[in-house]
Amino acid sequence: MNITVFCSANELAERYTKPARDFARLLGEHGHTLVWGGSDAGLMGVVADEVKAAGGRLVGVNVGMLSHKTYQGADELVMTADLAERKAVLLARADAVVVLVGGLGTLDEVTEVVELKKHGLHVKPVVLLDTEGFYDGMRTQLQRMAADGFLPRPLDELVRFAEDGAEALAYLEGPSA
Hints:
This protein has helices spanning 14-29, 42-53, 83-92, 104-118, 136-147, 155-158, 165-173, and strands at 2-6, 33-36, 57-63, 76-80, 96-99, 126-129, 160-162. It is α/β, with parallel strands linked by helices.
């Protein structure tokens, strides 16, 4: 399975990097391909290193303005002209999407992917790995949107929240995916 992972390119504390490494190791050990932003920086580099060490395949999708941070050990590298094209390629190459901790770029990516799914433009599973309750606020907001009639589909059809990488991967590999 090609699993697109959205995450931070920042250096982060161990409380965030360990769950990301654990998920990445499972991804590689299960023979999946990591499709990600193609960067060697921060959590992106940590995840890529771990998938590669566990025997997984790497497909990087980077953008020209960040080419100086390109991960050198990818099995395949796609360069895009801008961030919008990068997001489109990341989604097009995905069988599923997993969102790890991240900043504004990650928030932009996940909201676009969920919005496209809401409109039926893709049916790929989307899982947020809720490390240390990082996405509790987003979960609360989405639940309110659902309760107040802003979502035309049930929330659990749009996005799932997982407490750890094993739960995320079990959902993606399960019969309901």
